[in-house]
Amino acid sequence: TCSDSDCHPNATCSEFGGYGECTCKEGFAGDGSSCNDIYECQDFYTNNCNYYGNGYCVNTIGSYTCNCYSGYDYKEDFGCVDIDECADSSLNDCDPVAICTNHYGSYTCTCPQGYYGDGYHCEINECLQGTPCGSNEECVKYIGSYSCIDPCSSNTILNDPWRSTSNTYGYWDYWYYWYHCDNGLSGWYRFKGEYDQKIPEHCIPQYSCGTAIPIWMNGSHPTVSDGIVNRTACSNWYDGCCTYPYNISVKMCPGGFYVYKLQRPPSCNFAYCTESNYSCSGVDCAPDEECRIVGGVSGCYCKSGIQLGNLEDDLKPQVTCGLENIEVRFSKCLVEKWGYNTSSIHLRDYSCQGIIERSDKSYITFITRPADGSCGGSSWNNGSVIRYTNTVYLASYSDGVIVRDEIPIDFHCDYPSDMEINLLTAISSYVVSVFNVAGTANFTITMGLFQDSGYTTPYTDSKVWLSSSSILYVGVIVTGATGSSPFVLVMKNCYATPTADSFYGPRYDILTNQCPNKNDPTLSVAENGVSLKGRFSLQVFKFLGGFDKIYLHCQVGLCDTSNSYCAAVSMD
């Protein structure tokens, strides 16, 4: 008989022709009386763990195990094979809108076009939704929101003399000079030197600007009014003057210098060239100015031939009174010609300083709201007019030895607070009155008869006839302003007469001192003294005495909410 006990513990006994024979178990080698573990991990052909380099072998007594690297799974016949994490969303951490791309042993997540993020978190990129920042600012997206930046004030200075177009080397100089490389640039930059620099607009010879492959800009530089524009960056190499083209952005700033949004070049030994910004091209000056280069910087300066007149007339501002803003404009060149510093002109509130505007001439312009306290201004109401007043202070230039007191220039704007508008319902359902404000601006008051309680559909016929059961929807609105105006419309007294003469014949009061007629149960005031609209409704009636027409009249006014309570208060 054959017994395993007669063999090595890692062997088994088998009978052959009446004789017993000891054979080592799988994973062991020997003659049966002596069996040693086979080290499968030592021989590439005895295991399939690392067949593709995706795992490694771990020896065990009589066997081995395969450990796969991250991103791989073990299959008996194939060893460690790639896991397709993109086939099942539970196997990856990509954002639901992201694009999952499988790789051997891993995967990547990419946000789709129009989204921002790292692929594991994606959100809509507001900067790609139209132009949220306008043409003068750049939209910068970050997680959760975005911001608008002006690259003229947010940029990186590059002060590298080696960028000059006059800095040239020959091919054989490569062994003696290290050619510069701009592959680390990305963002907004301003080139500086002894004076401001700009990227040249013409092809630059090879081995110029301290590099092997110089970069120039194909296209003209913009003006200030152009905002941010796109141009093509070109590189001069053996294939031509504009090899490897790609887009960059450029903006001209009010100081006469340029800023550029640069990308890293295609490879090393590329660098951006610069030349002095001596040109006045692209500088938008007013007709009373001329472009000059001072200290290497181009700018707008008043022409020398400007003639002075009377001091009071020359320094008299243009005042434009609006419901939202008041604009006060001085001739910049006349102010400077009289020896005053246009950079330090201010209103009563010193922080409210003038800005330069250029159109038919150059101006110093102030913009303030017609509200009490705005830029230090004040207002008062005498019952018929609301007057807003403020003061502009002109400071003279100082030579460092003496200084003179500031000259105050007062200005005001008057806003009527007592006006009348009339509506003839039987003949005209829509009337407009234009009121001048302080002789420099105007606003429009419109009174209309509407068909619906939403006051959206006015009657358009030349004559409107209504039954006695109809409801009159009457609306009054001030146009020429938005909700940012400090004024609201107040309907003070509204009444009806049977003739066009508001002072003749019987009169039916609808509103008296803003208060509705308590004896008319059909009267409803929807809005009065809270915005630039006034609305009320009541049932149609007719006057006794054979009259067949109704004339509506309203005495209205503007009320300044910055220092008054404008809505009516019920005393019930």
Automatic annotation (TrEMBL):
Sample GO molecular function, one term: calcium ion binding
The primary site where this protein sits is: membrane
The record's annotation in CDD domains points to: EGF_CA
Domain EGF-like residue range list: 1-36, 37-81, 82-123
Q: InterPro entries this protein is in?
A: D8C_UMOD/GP2/OIT3-like, EGF, EGF-like_Ca-bd_dom, EGF-type_Asp/Asn_hydroxyl_site, EGF_Ca-bd_CS, NELL2-like_EGF, NOTCH1_EGF-like, ZP-C
Cite the entry's keywords alphabetically: Cell membrane, Disulfide bond, EGF-like domain, Glycoprotein, GPI-anchor, Lipoprotein, Membrane, Repeat, Secreted, Signal
Report disulfide bridges, numbered on this chain. Answer: 49-66
Could you name the Gene Ontology cellular component terms for this entry?
extracellular region; plasma membrane; side of membrane
* Cellular compartment(s): Cell membrane; Secreted
Name all ZP domain ranges: 320-572
Annotated membrane topology:
Lipid-anchor; GPI-anchor
Q: What is this protein called?
A: Uromodulin
Protein's organism: Aquarana catesbeiana
Which lineage?
Eukaryota, Metazoa, Chordata, Craniata, Vertebrata
